[in-house]
Amino acid sequence: MKTFNGKHARNNGALVFKLSPVAAGCVVFLSALGTNVYAQDATVAQATDAEGKPVSQVTVTGIRRGIEAAISIKKNSNSIVEAISAEDIGKLPDATVAESISRLPGVTAQRDPSTGRAAAISVRGMSPDFNGTLLNGREQASAGDSRGVRFDLYPAEMLGTITVYKSPDATLMGQGVASTIDQRTVLPLDFGKRTVAVGYKRIWTGEKNEAEGGGTGKGYRSTITYIDQFANRTVGVALGLVKFSDSGADQTRGDGWGGWTPTLKDVGVPAYNGSDSIKVPGGFQSVKQRDPQGNKSAMAVVQFRPSKEFVTTVDLFHSKFTDDTRKNGLEGAVCGNNGSYDPSGVLSNAQIVNGVAVSGTCSGYKAVQRNDIVGQADTLNSWGLNSRLKSGDWTFTGDLSGSKVTHHTDRYETTAGRPGNATDLDTISWTGFNGTSNLSPTYKVNANLTDRSRYVLTDVNGWGGSVPQAGYVAVGDQTDDLKAVRLSAKRDVEWGPVTALDFGVYHSNRDKERVSDEGNLTINNLQYGSATVPGTETGVTPNGIPIVRFNPAGTLGTVYTLLPKKDQPIQTDKNWEVSERITTLYAMGNLEGELFGIPYRGNAGAQYVRTNQSSSGVVVQPGNPSGCGDAGKPCASYAIGGGAKYNDFLPSINLSFELPYDQMLRFGLGKTLSRTKMSDMRPGGGVTVNNSNPTGPRLSGGAGNPKLEPFRAKALDLSYEKYFSVNGAKGYVAVAGFYKKLDTYVLQYGTEVDFKTTGYYQPGMALPTSGPYAGSTVGILTVPTNLNGGNIKGMEATVSLPFAMVSKYLSGFGLEVNYSSTLSSLSLPSSGLGNTKDTPNNVSLPGLSHIVTNARLYYEANGFRASLAAKKRGDFLGEVTDFQDNHQLTYIKASTLIDAQVTYDFDDKSMFKGLSITASANNLTNAAFDRFNTTPDVAVEHYRFGRTYGLGASYKF
Prior knowledge:
4% of the residues lie in helices and 54% in strands. By secondary structure, the protein is mainly β. The protein has one domain: Maltoporin, Chain A, CATH 2.40.170. The strands form seven sheets. It has a 22-stranded antiparallel beta barrel. The protein has a five-stranded mixed beta sheet with strand order 3-8-9-6-7. The two termini are 45 Å apart.
């Protein structure tokens, strides 16, 4: 049988809380003997010393080192993968994991609208929830309602490689329908000697954004890594520290109120020159925000290897991310009204073109001056204990691990302006209105909005209804705790094409809880209460209007009193707990052989997954008693629970055919699943009488679904790869195609039920009093439901070309380009999205951009390393957090980001040996982040971030 290079074992971790005595005893026994974390399925072959221990040997440096290591990972893997490898210790291509892996084919990122940095990751046109994310092969907890991790918690400086698995594999735990992203820290015994690396980078943000009213900020990233070996290389230690701090730049944000552009008749404004069908601006929000952020991370890895047969690895990872945003701006309706205290105005001095008030003035303007702060703190603690014993033909492995994330948010909103009973209001004028976007005009207010004697903290527009609301506060906490154990055995065999058998058991316990407290800020609980805006600070909105500014921190209890809000969405949607107990049995055989004279390698196996899930929450009866919820007293409510048990069988096969001239043809086929958002698995909800039902008043309710099962899919992957090496320079070209058949997809779905049988009915609950459903408990319950899915298909093309292969005169230059095209037959109801760019009834799949392109041109010679990179992503349906801290689907406009970086490495003969100097520039074109509803040309929200410059130095010895 033919022997292949690059045979390997995979490092797949696992997670649990309640451990059986037998399982715990096995792991402790193996730990006493020692082991390495599962060697990743796609690792670069290591050199060994005289005792057979691996020693890192680097034959290339810098950019080429990172590229060629990633090529080796891809080439040697049995699965279809993409990879990023560090150019040196602590030197991935970008500062964040999300930015690095978004350069891979079929992978793209959504930017954070607060900072402009890459945040959520989509793979092959699917949302972040369809990715499984691992650290050292182990499943990770997440910070939000969903399962998608926050990559800001994993500094790129602490990682050596990141591998994106695109095809399923029976030994890979925590995998997703779209991909599985495995982040790897370094292993100290893989290094031949003590290594210390330190780095410091100064950052300037928001540069060249003055044209839109933005400002600049500054920050830094510092890192230190220590790697050493002791006791004749039987003990290895790796320690790492990273600190990041950014003061934040003054970024600009324009909100066009969803593109609402009414006619005079729509908003009750008197006719102008006899016409009430003239279009006028509806309303807008113009805000500057400063978003200081910070991260402190620490890593520790200890290995003990007394002999080649025994290895133990302990790894610890800690990260704390903080985000404190301050927002100041102006909001309000223009001619119409937006609240019970906001009257409609009168249009005057207007220029009308084709039924549109291109310019004009409206009276009765009530400006709402916003001064808000939003704080966030995420803390990740991840650990693992892994031991491996090799005895004869057998290898036994035990792994214990845990991952816990705590997510805390606090949001304070304040409003300043004329009190609700004021009659001496202002006027607002505009020019340049195009009839479709409220962000198109230039606005001017004919009053000094910075006059603190006139503009006060108060309930300006009556946004609280009958309850005073001079502001709002929301404090929330989420905890995601995941623990696991994994026991496995592997044996080399000679069973025809089967060369090794790998089998084991994995068990994980996961508990996620969300708690939220919210309420209105009032001035002495008075309907027209007011207070002077503290301080003397003023500011200017992005559209040039002066306003008052102050920091609301510390005003609760001094300026404001709190009126708790206990309505149904807060109690049911933001207070819940979900638990999962998952046991997986798996077996896989490694394959080698020949088929029609063509040698192949690969694997075939299956997982049997047993799931036991449960959840608890609250059912609320809106309107019972009368005036509950918004008035500060709770509505009638009671606890509810639920759960489900189900099984899944997930077979998979991966084959790699080695063709002549260093070509590879890969085939992958399998069944996968991705678990749903844990917030959708809550049981809580609310039921009320729907008086607007077209056939008469009827009970209507909405809730989570504790019986909700995962997204399930079948996946087919094909990949052709050609590798080449000329004059020591390596490159490759690849073309891949994929097809995923989603058997189920989770959607909000309403069915007719008798509420007496659902747990959402209690004696005394209000029932319809008239019509065909009078006195009936039968109504419509809408919950997340497993419905029919659809298909996703696409192709990816990649070229990695060192120009030395073309001509020796181009030595040092190179190019990496990838292109992906993705289509889907799956469409979702547009409920909750308003108008959409597709049809009135359906929207495209979240996360799907039809075309994504990446390109990177680099040069490396004579100590210099330089690169120019561009990422282009088409329009897509993304997800943002709305003003109520809920996730909201929204269309995001296409954008192209261009980054540049130059590094100089002092050579070994220099007195500065080991020193590198780096300068970088990100978002060179100042690409905007625009949300839209109907067409990309009409933005409903517009952000500008400016450029980010960096200058830093690193030193390795």
